[in-house]
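Quick one, tokens below:
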């Protein structure tokens, strides 16, 4: 049974940092491209980052230079380090096996507010 479980969200002030985790099971993380997507209140899903099997990365312009995606295959865990957070980053964050978010987990809420 494939499972993706996100954690690490919370309330943070503008300019702060958070590190999200995504624990996966039921498939081999080491042979999977993985993605982070997010959904802000009242908006659709937005792709924000990709990591390939060889750990090559890509980012949406909205997060480039502030977010870093990484993976630990031994722990079957995907990460998203988020720095210099802005109120516009407020969203439900999901890890997913596809860029459209169809295979995403349950999500973790990130709220950026003073």
């Amino acid at each position: 049974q494939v499972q993706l479980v996100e954690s690490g969200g919370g309330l943070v002030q503008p300019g702060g940092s958070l590190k999200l985790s995504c624990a996966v099971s039921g498939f081999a993380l080491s042979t999977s491209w993985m993605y982070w997507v997010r959904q802000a209140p009242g908006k659709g899903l937005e792709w924000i980052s990709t990591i390939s099997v060889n750990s090559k990365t890509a980012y949406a312009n909205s997060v480039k230079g502030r977010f870093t995606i990484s993976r630990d295959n031994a722990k079957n865990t995907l990460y998203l380090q988020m720095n210099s957070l802005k109120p516009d980053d407020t969203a439900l964050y999901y890890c997913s096996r596809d860029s459209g978010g169809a295979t995403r987990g349950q999500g973790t809420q990130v709220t950026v507010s003073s």
